[in-house]
Write a structure and sequence with these properties.
Elements lengths: L1 H11 L13 H23 L5 E10 L3 E5 L4 E6 L6 E2 L4 E7 L2 E6 L4 E6 L6 E2 L4 E6 L8 E8 H4 L7 E6 L4 H4 L2 E8 L6 H8 L2 H7 L5 E8 L25 E8 L12
Antiparallel strand pairs: 1-10, 1-14, 2-9, 3-5, 3-8, 4-7, 5-6, 7-9, 10-13, 11-12, 11-14, 12-13
Helix pairs in contact: 5-6
Amino acid sequence: MQFRQQALAKLQSPEELDLPVRLARPQGWLVLSVTVVAMAAASVWAVTGSVTSTVSAPAILTHGEGSYILQSPVAGQVTAILAEEGERLPADSPVLKVRTSDGETVVRTIAPGRLTALAATIGQIIATGANVAAVEKVADADDPLYATVYVPAENAGSIPADAAVDLTVQTVPTQEYGVLRGHVKSVDRSPQSAQEIAAFLGDSQLGEQFTKDGRPVAVLVRLDRSSGTRSGYTWSSAEGPPYTLTSMTMATGSIRLADQRPVDWLLP
């Protein structure tokens, strides 16, 4: 009842047109001005600015043409090993001998390269098509190394040409020598299966490892060369590690994706 009487009294009272209108206080104008300026700056940045993002994925250092798995063309017993791991061999070089019911057969390399692994031992019984060795396709000791980064397929389309790549190499202490620098050379068009990766790297276990979360896309990275480091490549530190790098070394690659404008996130 009290509030009702007050409301009626206010309606019956004459309008106070002669009283000054109270505008916003100076503090209010200051807050409003700051808010407007901040919103304007954010709008300009959303249209003209850019945001950089990266994608990280497992990688491995290899020579450009990869490796191949050498298989036995016959079934029988291994009687001799004719090459050593790490040895560089020309095409058609003997690797091992296999005794069959028709005599002895020599298993030879298909293409020139470095013998990275032997999967057969003397006395072992092998079947036709058995994996007996892995050979890396490198003809010269000075052939440059590359890195192959196995990126999730959903991120491959946003990798620009010649994108910068930082590689954390497992055998190199990052805190002391930094990361290895490189740039994207090519991006495969389709995801790879475990069998395709194994065929390129000459290692079936790596094929399974790189596809455990799905079929990735292979990104070939050209390592930046440098004459001022022992490894011959560019590092985030001045000199890098005091030793050379070897192929089949595991790493993690961080690839810089194409820059995006913040306003693009709001557009369909």
